[in-house]
Amino acid sequence: MLAGNRRFSQGEAEHPWQDRETREGLIDGQSPDAAVLSCSDSRVPPEIIFDEGLGDLFTIRTAGEIVDDAVKASLEFAIESLHVSLLVVMGHEHCGAVQSALSALNADESLRERFSDADESAEIESDSIVVRQVGASILTAQSSELNTTDDYERVHVARTIEHLVADSSIIQSAIADGRVTIVGARYLLTTGKVEVLSF
Question: In the Cβ-directed half-sphere of 104, how many Cα atoms lie within 13 Å?
Answer without folding.
Answer: 23
